[in-house]
From TrEMBL:
Pfam families: ATP_bind_3, TilS, TilS_C. It catalyses: cytidine(34) in tRNA(Ile2) + L-lysine + ATP = lysidine(34) in tRNA(Ile2) + AMP + diphosphate + H(+). This is tRNA(Ile)-lysidine synthase. Ligates lysine onto the cytidine present at position 34 of the AUA codon-specific tRNA(Ile) that contains the anticodon CAU, in an ATP-dependent manner. Cytidine is converted to lysidine, thus changing the amino acid specificity of the tRNA from methionine to isoleucine.
Amino acid sequence: MSRSNIDLPARLLLNLASWRNAATWRIAFSGGLDSTVLLHLLATLSKTEYLPTLNAIHVHHGLQAVADTWPEHCRAVCAVLGVPLQVVRVQVQPGASLERAARDARYHAFTEALQANEVLLTAQHRDDQAETLLFRLLRGAGVRGLSGMPRQRPLGKGHLLRPMLDVTRAELEAYASAHDLSWIEDPSNQDRQYSRNYLRHQVLPVLIQRWPQAVATMARSATHLNEAQGLLEELADMDLREASSASEFAWLGLRSLELAPLAHLSDARQRNALSHWLEPLTRLPDTDHWSGWEDLRDATGDACPVWRLADGELHRAGGRIWWLSGHWLRPLPGAGVWLDPASPLAIPGNGVLSLTGQIPDGPLHIRYREGGEVMALPGRGHRDLKRLLNESAVPSFVRGRLPLLYKDGQLLAVANLKGLDGGALGDWHLHWQPLNEDQGLS
């Protein structure tokens, strides 16, 4: 028997079967038709089935005056069903797309609410999937975008599930009618200036009139494309493994890849591998913007090319590509005096310094490279710091952030660099622990 022939409660249980050992199921409850049906289904099933703890979460965007009454409606519904409700008020950031800004605010709230071993259930259905496919097709999306909304994905400390992607809007309406449910009608859902509403009210009805199975076939196409995306991700994993050699500068805590294995791939495989690698780090570039990757890849060996993306930058140095974001892209504050060298020194915006071994007498000062620095080395005399950094193959983007240790105006040590970190001058070493990338994310 196909899933479409099973009644709605049984189908929902089947779709959630592998998640019944979660600690909590949190239902994203807007108060609209779709989430009202999902909440009612789960609350009813919980009376006869052993389910995880149910909680509902309502995100209040405050974008229209009428929405101020919605939290109370949601509280009333949840009270009747015996499901605890959490109301989260968010601030929607202004931008070119109000739809996207509201979605970002909503999912940020969901991410903050989810704890380990918890699941967020959302009520998107098959008609939503068809709209998503058509919307993204018109925006020129690739396989990743056209694969539609995934049935499940990690979200924060837990997971996001969409257990009703095989359910039609008509089925939800029939269920709501049969159980005499009441729900919120969002006036903005009728506003044709929003692209999704235009597709829903103006375009899809015409397509369905000509092709009655249009929604089902588009949703099926999204399933096929999702499978294709899975194969592309497997290929990307294979290619990235080839480029994931260890770097001698692993202590930087930065994500990096070896360039040569990537450069030997076809252009399409390069874009596929890099998209897979960049996807959790930044919004992916559009087709035209990929020329930035080609410029970075093909730059001459002595160049220091940079590819600027939405949420960070890709740098090339030492035969590798490096992802920089957050504090790595912010200017450093001025250096200062190290009053107690026996204790670690927190450097504003740049991690922590420490000394091990026989700590040199003070006073000690921390500075950053400005150019023209000279360092005295036993047996080598005075050497330009620039040349010493070249010999150590220090990536260009690191050089301006490397802490330099001074005493009485003399450069004593360069943090973390063997032979320059103090060891050549005495039985001590200067260690630098940069801020990790997560601490640096904006």
